Amino acid sequence: MAACTVYSTQSLRTNISIPTSSSKTHVGFNQKQVVFYTKSNNKRLNNTSRYLITCKASDSQTIVIGLAADSGCGKSTFMRRLTSVFGGNPDSNTLISDTTTVICLDDYHSLDRTGRKEKGVTALDPRANDFDLMYEQVKAIKDGISVQKPIYNHVTGLLDPPELIKPPKILVIEGLHPMYDSRVRDLLDFSIYLDISNEVKFAWKIQRDMAERGHSLESIKASIEARKPDFEAYIDPQKQYADAVIEVLPTQLIPDDNEGKILRVRLIQKEGVKYFSPVYLFDEGSTISWIPCGRKLTCSYPGIKFFYGPESYKGNEVSVVEMDGQFDRLDELIYVESHLSNLSSKFYGEVTQQMLKHADFPGSNNGTGLFQTIVGLKIRDLFEQIVASRAETPVGATKA
Asked: What b-and-e string marks burial along 133-165, b requiring 16 or more CB atoms within 10 Å of the CB?
């Protein structure tokens, strides 16, 4: 059974022509997508309003992944790792591979940098973002409709002319608010939250904003302090909705460590998520502490320590895999990989291969890169399972 959706062309931000002929169109249900246009004659409505009606079979629907995190927390690096899993080589504003399209939700800022300053709000404040347009465009893409997505320019702080986004097989929406609006949240097939501790976040943000965006140290500090209340009110609470959380903390291997170079990273995986089986170490459901350093893994001070076990997180039952420390030789990661199960890899050593492929990416010698890569493989597996499930479901059994 086909599903039909009506969109106003204003929400799609695109110009379309309305056919005036009264010819009838036959819609065949074996078609994956049929698009036609109509114009309302209802006198209560503006008779210049234009509408797009799309009917499509359910098996061609775009799969939507949400990635939430504060600014400067590694979203861009994660997106490059994820896109690489699907064969992409991202180097543009909108990251695209043969399978995936990644859009930054900063593009839905309703206020530019000057406008936010005048109104006294940060980019984290919902009042500075157009959630209606975000929902309408994400839903349209999920339903197979191209949209003209706005662009927020991080260098100038202005809103640039929009760009055309065509429906991909997988749409990744990354930014501050992918799980804030319940309408957008309901469109997600899987969600991830990057949770970076204040100490680590400060170091990362300084490195990125000073090196890449030309900001001064004083302006970065002021920005972080100004954002804290809004972060705690609008961004941080989204963790409760995430299917997977990558939590980055200072190491516990060095007492009173203040440098922040060694990281403790936790992959928190929600139990009971459809098409998602949590990764585990050695024995599923057990509680395990493992120090692999020795003859098979080169470890300089302070070494590496892994942990795995069940926990409760934000009211949800989860499985946690934790890595504290960093690799001296990335090629030796294969030894650790061989002790992890449910990786959703296609072949033995694929995690290590992906890590070596992007050895110059931030976090490639610690748990951030390892768990980002693993989550990328899990998303690929989730996508393939959903596609297979839709192929097996008779069209007549699909809900209208």
From this structure: bbbbbbbbbbbbbebebbbbeeeebebeeeeeb
